[in-house]
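are you around this afternoon, could really use another pair of eyes. what follows is a protein written twice so to speak, once as letters and once as structure tokens for the fold. i want to understand how the tokens follow from the sequence so walk me through it. anything you notice is useful, everything is just below.
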Amino acid sequence: MMNQPLLVVPLLRYAAQFHGDTVIASRTTEGETHRTTYAELYERTQQLANALIAAGVKPGDRVATLAWNTWRHMELYYAVAGIGAVCHTINPRLSPAQTQFIIDDAEDKLLFFDTTFADAVAENCKGRASLGARIALCDAANKPANPELADVVNYEDFIAPHKTAFDWPVFDENTAASLCYTSGTTGNPKGVLYSHRALVLHSFACCLPSTMGMGVEDVVLPVVPMFHVNAWGIPYAAPMAGAALALPGRHLDGESLFDFMDSEGVTCSQGVPTVWMGLVEAMRKRGRKPKALNRIMIGGAAASEALIDAFEVEFGIDVAHAWGMTEMTPLGVVNTLKPKFKSLPRAEQMRQKLKQGRVVYGVDMRIVDAAGKILPHDGKAAGHLQVRGPWIVESYFKANTSALTVDGWFDTGDIATIDADGYMHITDRAKDVI
């Protein structure tokens, strides 16, 4: 068999070649809807790759983003990684001290930011030793007026002089493609590097029917931000599946999501419970669901029975629980009901649906007691939840020690049970999850 490296750029190139007219719609910072296609996005990604090299970005350099879910942010995902550099997505919800720490720790060379974060950039980027140019993700007409950002270049001018063709390098699939920092631990955030190999394999898992199950008939709206564990891998998995994308930008309230889902024909979406509560309110207000929406995924915190019922019983939208961590790229388990549970009374189905779910292919999972003894999967024994797999962290960024146990497992810091059908249920959490 051919031994070809698993790199992320071929995901987008595939979508451009075979799903070239499939639409990527984005809500802009200014509130308008921008539409492009995979073919157009791929051309601009090549243009951006040329611009990055002209700006002095070299393989291994970190390039930071402070941005919402938009087409420009997606171009950065692929162009930065495609030239062998590392796309470092910064969570704007971190404190100023944490933001300054991770910029310094990552030694970011460039920073691309949405204009809504202009004041934060002006404040948090002062005196950052490694940081060079700052590029606003806008055109000339919408460049920030902040006098402290007078030297900022707008994105469209940054890429405009460059060709829309690029000869992508081929390199080791274990090369880092992206960098995210944890926010659920005590002390300073810890960096997790994701390799090209890990991201491509994770994308395969996302596309499985019993996980996110995306396909060419879908329009996918990731509510989860691209600065939060790569939007759970959706910017990579959707092109692999040939699915259309609807990127909501900063407009994440229930009314805005409803309107955008309705106008773009969104079929599936992924996000945290607080966002879904806002959408439920909007649906109740209008007496209907967005016209094409048929399923959602809930992660980030446990979904309540009331929230699941609101979607499934009131509006006929299927709900899948999911769980993972920054250290897991992040997908670990997804809760889709086995056929034998679907004929049970609603209350018994709900007992299963409230669990985090079953592991996706590629992830091994176990529970152990305090002494490291493996515990049974009987739904009763509770122990330390440990995982391993090709997209699970081995060591943190710049750490001199392994993050794994002596026998090669990552301890999540959570206490959980696993039942005889493989459904994992977290009973106590020492860390935030996806």
Q: What stands out?
A: The chain has a mean pLDDT of 96.
